[in-house]
């Protein structure tokens, strides 16, 4: 599956929206929008849901040692993580 950079960001926002049940609110997020600690819906279980959807949609596997809190610091850091996995 080939994704363009802008498409990756849009898809990541769609995944966040779906996993957290934000009913479209995530689609308005900007790159600097904080995630972990800023969204009450994003707890540890929801983060696992986001990661599972990322793996499913983008076709990669995420190792336990690849994830820490900084991955979910903002939209930008999460998109950068996905871009790194796809590179």
Summarize, please:
This protein is an all-alpha fold and 87 residues long. The chain contains 3 helices and no strands. It has one domain (5-86): Non-ribosomal Peptide Synthetase Peptidyl Carrier Protein, Chain A (Orthogonal Bundle).
Task: Describe the 3D structure.
- The chain is globular, with a radius of gyration of 12 Å.
- The chain has one domain: Non-ribosomal Peptide Synthetase Peptidyl Carrier Protein, Chain A (Orthogonal Bundle), CATH 1.10.1200.
- It has three helices and no strands.
- It has about 90 residues and is mainly alpha-helical.
- The mean pLDDT is about 90.
From the structure above, extract its key features.
single chain, 87 residues, mainly alpha, Non-ribosomal Peptide Synthetase Peptidyl Carrier Protein, Chain A, 3 helices
Helix and strand arrangement:
Blueprint: H1 5-20, H2 44-58, H3 75-86
Helix pairs in contact: 1-2, 1-3
Main structural class:
mainly alpha
Helix share of residues? Answer: 40-55%
Supply the CATH class: Mainly Alpha
- As an assembly, this protein is single chain
| Poorly predicted tracts of residues | none
Q: Over all CA atoms, what is the radius of gyration?
A: 12 Å
**Tertiary shape:** globular
CATH superfamily: ACP-like
Beta-strand fraction estimate: under 5%
CATH architecture: Orthogonal Bundle
Q: How many strand units? A: 0
Order of helices and strands: HHH
CATH topology: Non-ribosomal Peptide Synthetase Peptidyl Carrier Protein, Chain A
Taking the alpha carbons of the first and last residues, their distance comes to 12 Å
Mean model confidence by pLDDT = 92
How many domains, as an integer? 1
**Main pleated sheet:** none
Number of H/I helices: 3
């Amino acid at each position: 599956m080939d994704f363009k950079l802008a498409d990756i960001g849009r898809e990541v926002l769609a995944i966040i929206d779906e996993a957290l049940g934000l009913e479209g609110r995530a689609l308005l997020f900007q790159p600097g929008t904080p995630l972990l600690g800023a969204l009450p819906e994003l707890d540890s279980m929801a983060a696992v849901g986001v990661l599972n959807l990322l793996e499913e949609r983008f076709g990669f596997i995420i190792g336990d040692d690849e994830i820490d809190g900084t991955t979910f610091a903002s939209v930008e850091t999460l998109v950068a993580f996905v871009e790194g996995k796809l590179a």
